[in-house]
Amino acid sequence: MRPVDIIHKKRNGGINTKEEIEFMVNGYVDGSIPDYQISAWLMAIYFNGMNKEERYYLTMTMRNSGDIIDLSGIEGIKIDKHSTGGVGDKTTLAVGPLVASAGLKVSKLSGRGLGHTGGTIDKLESIPGFKTAISKDEFFKIANEVGMVVAGQTGNIAPADKKLYALRDVTDTVDEISLISASIMSKKLAVNSDGIVLDVKTGSGAFMKNLDDAVALAKSMVEIAELNNRKIVAVVTNMDQPLGEMVGNSLEVWEAIETLKGNGPEDFTELCLELAASMIDLAGIYEYKEARKILEENIKNGKALEIMRKWIKAQGGDERVVDNPEEILPISKNIVEFKAEKSGYVSHIDAEKVGIASMVLGAGRKKKEDEIDYSVGIKVMKKLGAKVEKGDTIALLYVSDKSNVEESLELMKEAYEITDNPPTEHKMKLIYEKISGGK
Q1: Who wins on pLDDT, 205 or 297?
Q2: Considering Cα of 359, then 334, then 409, then 245, what sign does the dihedral take?
C-alpha cells in the first residue's frame, strides 16, 4: 500500500477503504508517512468529502489511537453531553445537577477554554477549593454517591486527532464536515457511555456560522454514533448572541446557580431543560415530556440545587457558594458600563466579538499557557430584539487592573448593531432542529 495511491484515489473523488484510512492515520502517528503526504490527503478530503462509512472509519481509527475510558465503575446508564462551543455556554454546570436530580448519573471529562469559548474546567476552578484533577477511584465514588462529577481530561485520548488537527490548522483544512465530525466523535466515542446528547451551535459565536452547515455536521455525527451502536440526539441551537447574560468564569458559575434557583435567563433555562430532558429520555428513565415536568419541579423544590451543593462539596469546593455566590466567588467589584450610542433595536450581535471582548479583559486565553482571571467578564443587559434609547446600558464589563478595557469596549461597539427595526423571529429562535438516530 502506498500513500500516493490513496491520495490519488481521494483526489479523483474515489472512496478510501477502512484499511487505507487506517494506513494513512496510523502511518502519520508513527512517523512512517510524512506530513506533506497527509496534507495532500487532507486537502483531497477537503474538496471531495467523505461518505458516512469513510467518516466512521476515520473516527474509529483516531479513537483507537489512544486510551478508551471505561465507565463501568459507575452504576446505571451513562449519557454524555457535548457542546461544539459558544459564548456564555455554561450548560454543563446547570444540566448536570438537573439530570442527576431526576436519577441519571452524570460523569463528564471536560477541557479548558482557548480563544473566545470558555472551558468548563476553568469555570469550575473559579469556585474556591474546587478540584478537577481527581483520581479514577474518586471520580467513580463521587458519581455513584452524588450523581454528578466533572474532571479534567487526562490520559491519552485520541492522540491521532490532536496530531491531525494541528496539521489541518496550518493547511487550512479545518472547516470540512467529515473532518470536523470525525474529530469531535473520536473523542466522544473514546468514553464508553451508553448515549450522547450533542448541542451543535450555529451563528456568529459558533464554529459553524451557517445553519445548513450546522445541521449537516449534526447529521454526520449522528450517523457516526449510529454506526458505533451508540444512542444519540443532536440539538442544533442558536449562537447568534451569547447564551444567557453572563460571559466569564465566576460570572457563569453565578448564573448557573441562579438558574437552579429558578432565577436564570429565559434562553439559558430553556436550553438546559431541553438538553437535560433529552438526556433522560435517551437513557430511558422517563419520556421527554415527563422528564421536562420533573426537571421543572426539581428547580422549584430545590432538589437540583441540593445536588449542586453536594457535588461542589464532594470535589473540594466551598459549598457556601450555592447560597451566596456573589460573595464567595471571585467577582470583580470594578464595573465599566458599555452604553448605546443611538436609539433603536438591537438587530445584530456578533457573539464571537463579545467572547473576545471578555477574553481581552482576562477571562480567556489567547495561548494555552496564558493564565486567566476568574473575576472578570461581561454581563449582557440587552439582547437581540431589545429596544434601547441612546445612553442605555447595553452591557456591564467586570474588569481588573490588567484588563484591556479600551480594546474590550471597542470590540463591544463592533459587536452590536442598533437599527430602526428589530431582527426577524428566526434570528432569535433558540432551537432550530433536533436530530435523533435514524432520522
Answers
A1: 297
A2: positive
> What residues are paired with 151 via a beta bridge?
109
Mean pLDDT of 339-355: 96
- Residue of 80, 161, 199, 373 marked catalytic: 161
Q: Is residue 339 annotated as part of the catalytic site, yes or no? A: no
State how far the Cα of 83 lies from the Cα of 388, in Å rounded to an integer. 32
Give the mean model confidence (pLDDT) for residues 311-331: 96
Extents of the domains making up the chain:
3-49, 79-324+431-436, 331-424
Which of these is catalytic: 168, 292, 303, 310?
168
**Strand partners of residue 398:** 335, 377
Domain 79-324+431-436 classified CATH 2.40.160.40? no
Per-residue pLDDT of 145-197, as tens digits, reads 999 999 987 768 899 999 999 999 999 999 899 999 999 999 999 999 999 99
Catalytic residue from among 10, 78, 82, 112: 82
Q: Per DSSP, what are the bridge partners of residue 396?
A: 337, 379
CATH code: domain 331-424 is 3.90.1170.30
Residue of 107, 183, 193, 220 marked catalytic: 183
Residue 231 is among the residues annotated as catalytic for this protein: no
Active site residue 101: no
Instruction: Write out pLDDT tens, residues 193-210.
Output: 999 999 999 999 888 999
The DSSP element (H or E) to which 28 belongs, if any, is helix 18-30
Spatial distance between the Cα atoms of 299 and 306, rounded to a whole number of angstroms:
10
**Residue 436 is among the residues annotated as catalytic for this protein:** no
DSSP category for residue 362: I
Q: Which candidate in 187, 201, 219, 309 is catalytic?
A: 187
pLDDT score of 113: 64
Active site residue 82: yes
Which CATH fold would you assign to the domain 3-49? 1.20.970
